[in-house]
Amino acid sequence: MVFGQVVIGPPGSGKTTYCNGMSQFLNLIGRKVAVINLDPANDALPYECAVNIEDLIKLSDVMIEHSLGPNGGLVYCMDYLEKNIDWLQSKLEPLLKDHYLLFDFPGQVELFFLHANAKSVIMKLIKKLNLRLTAVHLVDAHLCSDPGKYVSALLLSLSTMLHLELPHVNVLSKIDLIENYGNLAFNLDFYTDVQDLTYLHHHLDQDPRSAKYRKLTKELCEVIEDYGLVNFTTLDIQDKESVGNLVKLIDKSNGYIFAGIDGNAVEFSKIAVGPVDWDYYRYPFSSVCFDIFLWIAVYQPAEWSF
Q: Which top-level group of life is the source organism from (predicted)?
């Protein structure tokens, strides 16, 4: 059984940065990680790419050859990938024995709640390669500062969850920058727990653009609450504790936490005694002891206690 993550989200939500930071973190705790770039528009990758869709098809070539814009070109690329799924399967098969997989998908949101091609690619891989994947849906945390944009993010998250039909974790990314956009109307817990959206109505009425659609917004909020599926966890990719908490949540969702715990303990012991290297931008890892504690917190057997 092979485990991994399907990283999705709107443009600018930090998917590529997430894959870069997450791959470094997982390598540190002893997992062998392979990042698969399935975004044909992403030509400046900060991470080492195990499989790159640009070896199969490039968005720039599609746009020129078929006179398409970037959105139509991305849909074409996903259709082409679906029809050539054997190519991707052959690239992934050598990685299945001992790798944890991170799939970096395009940011075009239509691919995940309107079109079926991206979902078909994922489902075919799951069936053919026996993968256990969790969809990690990133949403920029600054959307919480605008009630209208926040409701839109909730609708997008709900639609994506229903469309993909995968274990799903919604993430407010760039949480460290949220204060740059002003004070939130409510505590952060209100935005992560998504409990009672009626409190947003007053703030929506303050904006003339939103007040015009007050009834529609109320009905949409009721739909979100009736499903009761959407909530968020937060992420600062530069904070290893934040990344560790997210890894723990993802591992529970796809079952990784129940597989190979003894093997992971051996792998982790090899790096715990060595030098720690976290080269993600300006935040170095400061303590091996913290990493040991974090690993124990994630994979602590029931009989252990502190």
A: Eukaryota
